[in-house]
Specification:
Radius of gyration: 23 Å
Distance between the termini: 34 Å
Number of helices: 16
Oligomer: single chain
CATH topology of the largest domain: UDP-N-acetylmuramoyl-L-alanine:D-glutamate ligase
Number of strands: 21
Structural class: alpha/beta
Helix content: 25-40%
CATH architecture of the largest domain: 3-Layer(aba) Sandwich
Strand order of the largest sheet: 19-18-17-20-16-15-21
CATH superfamily of the largest domain: Mur-like, catalytic domain
CATH class of the largest domain: Alpha Beta
Largest sheet: 7 strands, mixed
């Protein structure tokens, strides 16, 4: 990989260099607690002023700095007008110089990370790491983009309008996937779901002329995006029951995952995935559809779909030693994703259906209504118990009714006599919630209570 020295980086950023231009950083970070030896530290101004953490970054071995005010230190520093804009410029220019032959973008209110994983395996692509999908994370991941990559799959997220537009400026797209429009971040949109659709639609707007994008046919807001004047420069490809790209003969395989037939204009073949739930079937089908559109073979689509295994927090199934299973979906939550994963849990063998939920966030004025609706929907699905905690837990419990118990915090949930310890042996348990509530703690507690737990492969 061809790394840039500090002199080259200064030139690209249009900054002022103080120090040795020949130093070559081996990475980049804005987190002083996680920076590694010989990496560049970017002093961002966000909720906290990154310049305050420069001493810690230097102590941990930072080889150079990007700052908006020069500090007293021995390592080279690049002074710029705005450190956030400088980070974005670095990532944008690096990607422009070493741009791959095919670039895919993935967004949506739920399922975008899993869909990114499906697609990147199918097309053997470089992918954005973890959830580095915002206007800081994406350019950070692109700042050291490799020079010999043929295909890239980039996850693009947003919490406000304009963010995905900026991401597609940093990394213009050839193909796109929109997994669906839901209520995540709705508190930031006065016009509700249509506002979210417009913001997510910025990904479509950022696809190059005569490119293509796929979406679930039954999503009304995706349908709206497909007919807007600003989306007509590229081809919209719905996947659904009445389109030319369909999911047929879907069958749950229990703990083994799901199977279905994918039928497209020029293809029809059987697919099996190891992830559990119909929502993952849709995610896989979207990835298959756009991969085939890009020229991928059937064989690679099939093998790639099967190769993805569930991760901690994103669909990992744990077989409990005392009977039953735990479906770990603890990474994050929206109303739509809770219901989708709850339906997936129903297809697994075991005893009582139990949901352990942290409250959802960024739902704005609809938060009370959305939490009550989720509780009510879980009851209608046949769940026997709901244990929930956080600032809106009482509304989840109210919607669920008898069999539910709410707690103000995780400590109360784990220590209460009618909390986690009250879950019957043999239960089928879903754990899910906003990142804020760190629901992985509930997963850890349940697994520790079943110390002989056998994890699924």
């Amino acid at each position: 990989m061809s790394f840039w020295n500090v002199g080259k980086i200064t030139e690209i950023l249009g900054g002022e260099l103080i120090g040795d231009p020949t130093i070559i950083p081996k990475g980049i970070s804005f987190n002083s607690k996680e920076i590694l030896q010989e990496e560049c530290f970017v002093a961002l101004r966000a909720k906290r002023n990154g310049h305050d953490f420069i001493p810690e970054a230097l102590q941990r071995g930072a080889s150079c700095l990007i700052v908006d005010n020069v500090v007293d230190c021995k390592v080279p520093q690049i002074k710029v007008r705005n450190t956030t804009e400088a980070l974005q410029t670095w990532g944008q220019r690096r990607f422009e110089i070493f741009r791959p032959g095919q670039v895919f973008g993935v967004t949506g209110s739920a399922g975008k990370t899993t869909t990114k994983e499906f697609l990147s395996i199918m097309v053997s692509a470089w992918k954005t790491p973890g959830n580095f999908n915002n206007t800081i994370g994406l350019p950070l991941s692109l700042a050291f983009f490799p020079s010999n990559i043929h295909t890239a799959v980039l996850e693009m997220g947003m919490s406000t309008a304009g963010e995905i537009k900026r991401l597609t400026e940093i990394a213009p797209l050839d193909f796109g996937i929109l997994t669906g429009i839901g209520h995540a971040h709705i508190e930031n949109f006065s016009d509700g779901l249509r506002g979210i659709a417009r913001a997510k639609g910025e990904l479509v707007e950022g696809i190059k002329n005569r490119g293509a994008w796929v979406y679930p046919e039954e999503d009304a807001n995706c349908q709206w995006i497909a007919v807007q004047p600003w989306s007509q420069h590229c081809c919209a490809l719905p996947v659904g029951p009445t389109s030319s790209r369909q999911i047929l003969n879907h069958e749950s395989k229990g703990l083994l995952g799901e199977s279905f037939i994918y039928r497209g204009p020029h293809h029809e073949f059987s697919v099996q995935i190891q992830l559990k739930g119909k929502h993952h079937v849709i995610n896989a089908a979207l990835a298959i559809a756009i991969a085939l559109e890009s020229g991928l073979s059937e064989e690679r689509a099939i093998s790639g779909a099967f190769a993805l295994t569930p991760e901690e927090g994103r669909g990992k199934i744990h077989h409990l030693a005392h009977g039953g299973v735990l479906l770990d979906e603890s990474y994050n939550a929206s109303p739509e994703s809770i219901i989708a994963t709850a339906i997936g849990l129903k297809g697994l063998p075991g005893g009582e259906l139990v949901a352990v939920l942290g409250s959802m966030r960024e739902l704005g004025q609809s938060a009370v209504q959305q939490h009550e609706a989720v509780g009510s929907h879980l009851k209608a699905l046949g769940f026997h118990r709901l244990l929930c905690y956080g600032d809106f837990a009482t509304y989840l419990s109210k919607g669920f009714g008898k069999g539910s118990k709410s707690f103000p915090s995780f400590v109360d949930l784990k220590d209460g006599a009618d909390g986690l310890g009250s879950i019957p042996a043999g239960s089928r348990i879903l754990v899910k919630g906003s990142r804020y509530w760190k629901c992985e703690q509930a997963v850890e507690w349940i697994l520790n209570a079943n110390q002989n737990t056998i994890k699924s492969p």
